[in-house]
Write a structure and sequence with these properties.
Elements lengths: L5 E3 L2 E3 L6 E6 L4 E7 L4 H19 L4 H4 L1 H12 L1 H12 L3 H18 L2 H4 L3 E7 L2 E9 L2 E5 L13 H6 L3 E5 L6 H13 L7 E3 L4 H9 L3 E7 L2 H13 L3 E5 L4 E5 L5 H13 L9 E7 L3 H12 L19 H16 L3 E4 L18 E4 L6 H4 L6 E7 L2 H9 L3 E2 L1 E5 L3 H10 L4 E4 L15 E2 L2 E2 L6 H7 L1 E9 L9
Parallel strand pairs: 7-8, 7-10, 8-9, 10-11, 12-13, 12-18, 13-16, 15-16, 18-19
Antiparallel strand pairs: 1-2, 3-4, 5-6, 6-22, 11-21, 14-15, 17-20
Helix pairs in contact: 1-9, 3-5, 3-8, 4-5, 4-8, 11-12
The chain binds nicotinamide-adenine-dinucleotide.
Keywords: NAD, Oxidoreductase
Enzyme class: oxidoreductase
GO molecular function, one term: methylmalonate-semialdehyde dehydrogenase (acylating, NAD) activity
Length: about 500
């Protein structure tokens, strides 16, 4: 049984912890490796921080143009090895091979944007704010920055942060999800073999809550980026603040899509079905509440048909459109939420429970499920299910739909499907969510835009990606400079 090692001070080493937990392939529940876990991982984290701090002291003075050079190579590495990495992602996380390739493309795009950091991070300068006095602002790195990531995008989410952190002159420590650590392990092996980075600049440490708490509490860690459930995001934000850190913490979601009566049925069905069931519904931007406005017979029939015909199976097999959910626990949690919804009065239009995939009977498979007429005050309306479940609601008007959306606790995404520009304009202005889609089912910002969650979907102010990333990983310094002796000639 392979036990994953940590990457500290530019080398691979065994964890101080003798406790390990298994990593499963969710399609068949086979154990593929094991990962260090438990209280002794704190020693690993402390060691990584010590070396990261030394690397930062060297790296911060490297000219900005030179700091981005390794990122060009990193991009090529990911491009050259994307097939192997995508296979690893599918086998540890369950999504289809095409979805794994898709997330890697998003990772690569973030590296590309961060390659322009030396331009995006340029200073502001005001000459002569008073006679003989100039004022300017520079951005300097923070020090050691850490990132804690969730299970659902093992190859992409670390790259929402890593390239920006090092391009701006920081050292970076990644603590990946203990459920899916192998893709980043492989990427770090590639980095180790191919990039000439100062030892300790990039570190990979494993573990769960103990490692995270060690990162939160250590005085040399200056910033924490987190992506995961709202409950943990809130904890990270408040603990980080307690220990004086800069924090960006992205949380969970419950994403609505409104379908107006004029929406194109075929296009809307295809895009919404991909949004709800893509990655088996385990995307923070997966649509889960579908709101039809007015008469909904045709669109409802079409959504039911599409749900029933989705091809479920092992993500590495050809033509598979949806893989398993991450774990046995996750599967039973989703099933019990479906049962609860039915007990609370929902009508089950499509039932995806109690079905197997031939040859993968031990896998954590669920098929698409559609619930309708769920009472608005019930748990299933407000709880993030994080599985392939659509909750279908019907409202009289777009305004009623917006009012319902705005009453929810999350604000990661809201979308509308319509052919009417005015409705779309009103929706994008009034819906209280940070990522809006118009005839788009997964409104995932590309790398140059911030990933803008609102409400309980985000804690902090500067988001991941693009300029926000650069601002998050730098602190401003304003310099006011007086040169009292002025020149004698004017031109
Ligand atoms: P999770 O919160 O269980 O775990 C995320 C990370 O936090 C892991 O690395 C884990 O080791 C660590 N962790 C777990 N419990 C902890 C604790 N008590 N104290 C400290 N650290 C802890 O999330 P998950 O199940 O891996 O991921 C799914 C969640 O992530 C969903 O809610 C999803 O919506 C959310 N998500 C959000 C975004 C976004 O951009 N907003 C993106 C992807 C996923």
């Amino acid at each position: 049984m392979k036990t994953l090692e940590n990457y500290i001070n530019g080398q691979w080493e065994r964890s101080n912890s003798t406790q390990q937990i298994p990593i499963y392939n969710p399609a068949n529940q086979e154990i593929t490796a094991q990962v260090p876990y438990g209280p002794d991982t704190v020693k690993d984290v402390h060691k990584a921080i010590e070396h990261a701090h030394k690397a930062y002291l060297e790296w911060k003075d490297v000219p900005a143009m030179r700091r981005v050079q390794p990122l060009f190579k990193m991009k090529t590495l990911l491009e050259d090895h994307k097939e192997e990495i995508a296979k690893l992602i599918t086998s540890e996380c369950g999504k289809t091979y095409a979805e794994s390739l898709g997330e890697l493309q998003r990772a690569i795009e973030n590296i590309e944007v961060a390659c322009g950091t030396y331009v995006l991070n340029q200073s502001e300068f005001s000459e002569n704010i008073a006679p003989g006095i100039d004022e300017f602002m520079i951005r300097q790195p923070l020090g050691v920055c850490a990132c804690i990531t969730p299970f659902n995008f093992p190859g992409m989410i670390p790259f929402w942060f890593l390239p920006y952190a090092i391009a701006t002159g920081n050292a970076f420590i990644l603590k990946p999800s203990e459920k899916v650590p192998t893709a980043m392990q492989y990427i770090f092996e590639l980095i180790d073999k191919n990039l000439d980075l100062p030892k300790g600049l990039l570190s990979l440490v494993h573990g769960g809550k103990d490692s995270v708490d060690a990162l939160l509490q250590h005085p040399d860690v200056k910033a924490i980026s987190f992506v995961g459930s709202t409950q943990v995001a809130r904890y990270i934000y408040s603990e980080g603040a307690k220990y004086g850190k800069r924090v960006q913490a992205q949380g969970g979601a419950k994403n609505p899509i409104v379908i107006m009566p004029d929406a194109d049925i075929d296009m809307t069905t295809k895009i919404i079905t991909d949004s709800v069931y893509g990655c088996a519904g385990q995307r923070c931007l997966a649509a889960s509440i579908i709101i039809t406005v007015g008469d909904n017979k045709n669109i409802k029939d079409s959504l039911v048909e599409a749900a029933k015909s989705r091809k479920v199976g092992y993500g590495l097999e050809k033509d598979i459109e949806m893989g398993p959910v991450i774990s046995k626990e996750s599967k039973s949690r989703i099933e019990s939420l479906i049962q609860k919804g039915v007990a609370e009065g929902a009508n089950i239009l499509v039932d995806g429970t109690n079905k197997n995939v031939s040859g993968f009977e031990n896998g954590n498979f669920l098929y698409p499920t559609i619930l309708e007429n769920v009472p608005l005050n019930k748990e299933i309306i407000s709880t993030e299910i994080f599985g392939p479940v659509m909750t279908l609601l019907n409202f009289k008007s777009m305004e009623d739909s917006i009012q319902f959306i705005n009453s929810g606790r999350y604000g990661n995404m809201a979308c509308i499907f319509t052919q009417d520009g005015l409705s779309a304009r009103q929706f994008r202005s009034q819906a209280m969510a940070g990522n809006i889609g118009v005839n788009v089912g997964v409104a995932a910002p590309v790398a140059q835009f911030p990933f803008s969650g609102w409400k309980d979907s985000f804690f902090g102010d500067l988001h991941a990606q693009g300029r926000h990333g650069i601002e998050f990983y730098t602190q401003t310094k304003v310099v006011i400079e007086r040169w009292p002796k002025t020149w004698s000639r004017t031109f």
